[in-house]
Design brief:
alpha/beta, Rossmann fold, six-stranded parallel sheet, three-stranded parallel sheet, 10 helices, 11 strands, 39% helix, methionine biosynthesis, methylenetetrahydrofolate dehydrogenase (NADP+) activity, THF_DH/CycHdrlase, THF_DH/CycHdrlase_CS
Amino acid sequence: MVLLDGKKVSNDIKNEIAEEVKKMKANGEKVPHLAAIIVGNDGASLTYVASKVRACERVGFDSTMVRLSNTTSEVELLDKIHELNNNPDIDGFIIQLPLPKQIDTQKVLLAVNPDKDVDGFHPMNFGRMALDMSTFIPATPFGILELLDRYGVDTQGKHTVVIGRSHIVGRPMSILMGRKGFPGNSTVTLTHSHTKNITQITSQADIIISALGVPNFLKAEMVKDDVVIIDVGITRVPDDSTEKGYRITGDVDFENVSKKASFITPVPGGVGPMTIAMLLKNTLLARERQMK
């Protein structure tokens, strides 16, 4: 069994990006600039955005955090997005989700300039991805592809089962794994909460990508020997034996499934760190777009 170490690979990617930024600085060129908008005081969101800012500092990017109150109106948020869209210094920006209930998330995502949409959530970028055109791939799916690539996991002709159909992970992964090229060229089954006989489907899978958010959902009896497991799930499970009072758990019963797997991602330390690394990579691509 080989552990797909997202922490190590993400560090490698950050080091590679940092080298590119050093060359930009040496040549007197503009370095990439990533902005993040956060509305409200959600603890998990604040932690996540702070980690993105730290990642920018590490690789030498400029970064801007725009903090808005929980009572911010949709019009005020759209005005801020318009401002970032028209700021030539900002190469790419993200809007941290979820947003407060008074704001229409779809309307907000549509307002982002597709050339600055480093999250890859704009319908134009999603459509380009579906058509195999050059675009921003959502950071988590992009990170999964990079892990499969760097570990040389064979995907051609394999049966990939994706569990979960969210627009952020499940649906894009089902498209990307079926595309021409590597990683890809696999036959994809997309499963969700209404799928019947899911064990029958997962037990035939060569590769399973689980993005369900249900702790320990995927059991050893649901998979075959030598399966490749990508666990995107990340859930806080109460645990009084830990200092924080909780532990982070994935969708996969790691202890037992890992005994059957050929490759598997840990939680934490698997897909999670890759998401931020690929957001940085998308920002690098956004800078190239802005320079043209």
